[in-house]
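Two-component system sensor histidine kinase YesM, pasting as requested.
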Amino acid sequence: MLRFPVNSIRNTIFIRLVLTYLVVILPIIILGVYLYNWSYKNASQEISRATLTQLNYYLEDLDRELEWLEIQQFDLLQDNDLNKLAITWEMMDSIERTSGMNYLMHRLTSIKNSSPYIKDVVIHLRTLRKTVSAAKDVTAFDEASFGHLQGFLTKKEGRLLAWNDTLHLSAAKNSGKSGKEPLYIVQIELDPEKLKESLRQLNMYPASGSFLAVEYAGFTLASDRQANGLMQQYLHAAARSADATQLLDLEGGTYHFNKAYSDQLGVSVVTFLPEKTVSRPLSKFEIWAWLFAIMSFVAIIIYSYSTYRFVHKPLLLLVQSFRRMEGGTLDIPIEHEQKDEFGFLYHRFNHMLKKLQALIDQDFKQKLMMQKAELKQLQSQINPHFLYNSFFILNSLARTGDTERIELFTNMLGEYFRFITRNGEDHVPLSEEVKHSRMYTDIQTLRFSRRIKVRFDELPVPMEKIRVPRLIIQPIIENAYEHSLEKMDGEGLLRVTFELEEAEARIIVENNGTDIGDDQILALSKRLGSTSESYEMTGMMNIHRRIALIYGDESGLLIDRSELGGLKVVIRMKLEGGDGIA
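Structure tokens follow.
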């Protein structure tokens, strides 16, 4: 079990930070949050209860008022003099007609004056072809209004009719014959200004507002301009909600909405109140709020200082030391006098530096020396077979007098030998390695252009700057020519392709030779991990070991059967996690 080298529990950073947080921050935060939430919740609930009670009283009063109007409307429908006027108008003389109209105007005026909510009382007399209004006297028969009211009475979706931006009550006197239009229709138009005035009485606070909605009729009426603006937002945001109390964030801010609904009327009345008005009773706690803010600020300073001193500063020192180590500086240990967790980490870090220096001296430098020695060995293994063939090609070109191709061939041959014999850096960009390999295939094409075809893909741009050991592709291509393609009777094919994934680059060299069996391929794969093999595999084993040394054990050569029928060699390079030159 891991033990930290501390003298007592009070020296641990964790305990100090926890105690600092519990003693200074937590009680203040809990107390402040509790007091605020408790006060806010009580104020909000009290305002909502009072508002909902007021809204229900308002709907009850409105229902009683409409019942009174409906009674007056019903009495008017049953008025004998009105029925007589509607039926026997054609048989009356002028005196009777005048007397009947005067009586009818008197009735309508009496009904209009009986309620402040009435704007006008109208009777549409179909048989007389006249419309009688308490506000407009006797006019020509309003055919459009009669037809609209008749359609509403046929559907009868509710008690109220929304028409011309106001509400109406209507009733009809049937003629007594099936399919016949009614004799007359009584229409009571409610005064929208009086309704707005009654809604404004619901606004208990200066910033509050209210509105009325008859949902089945699609009618809304707001108490003022502010309420009209919020009304549409509320209806859109809470159209499907049945909650009596809601808190909504709208364009104008956050508002508390209280809603009451009357089943008898099919009418909803809603009031709203800004959240800041609800929280206004909390102004009594202003002194406590300031004290809470000051204490919180002091607590943040104390906690920030303790965190910086006990956590951030030691961690920063550790990070900087790791960065120096990554840069190759291994002789600067961390000095830390306190006996806490960081003291233990620093001690282990210093121990790691010493051990890392020893490992570099004993292992890493030896590997680098072995890598350079293997590269020099590979460079010295210039294939005599390739050299003889090159001179043979040069001799053939000289015999034919093809000076242009002689010049091209000698340039290619010079570039080829310059690359494999130079003693510069051991690692080159992949683009240079590919250029050298392509040069080798161009030289071979001069010799086998009729028998062996080469498909050499373009190197993807993201792979061009990958740093690789020199001479990892050309020896594999040379091996394909020497041991497979040159021995074929038919047409040979060499294909070189490139693949790049997020953390791995692959170079694939394959041919269509058929002189190698599956058992031989399996044997070759197993021999790659061996250190003592025959001359023919020395080059491939060398390449495999150098790639694995640089990019990690998961990198190296993979040997398999190609889709072309011959041997496929895949050069895999893990771009992350290896000793990594990329």
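Note for the archive: DSSP finds 15 helices and 18 strands in the chain.
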